[in-house]
Design goal:
mainly alpha
Length: about 110
């Protein structure tokens, strides 16, 4: 699956969606932590995220929203490898809901 997209336009959208999902997941982690402990709670959330990614891609392929040239598992492995190779930056949310554009690099 290759996407012909303008990364300058897409990057803020990706960042905002990622921030929103991470915040929601951490709320759930807090709930699960009381009963299962933090490590198990984080592993539950991580597994849910990975299962959601697989389900999202499978559904998109089934609905002919995207086409892949290899099995969806290979697409996910490839994309995850690409993402992990990138330099990640944390962008703080401003009071107006926008994100600080420079961000802080993390490894």
């Amino acid at each position: 699956m290759s996407a012909d997209r303008d990364n300058e336009v897409c990057a803020p959208l990706i960042n905002a969606l990622s921030f929103q999902m991470t915040a929601s997941l951490f709320e759930e982690i807090q709930k699960f932590s009381a009963e299962h402990g933090e490590t198990v709670a984080v592993s539950i959330a991580l597994d849910a995220v990975l299962m959601s990614a697989a389900s999202l891609l499978k559904t998109a392929v089934s609905n002919r929203m995207v086409r892949t040239t290899m099995p969806y598992q290979a697409v996910l492995h490839s994309r995850l490898d690409e993402l992990l190779a990138m330099e990640f930056r944390v962008h703080s949310m401003r009071p107006d809901g926008s994100f600080e554009p420079t961000g802080q690099p993390i490894n």
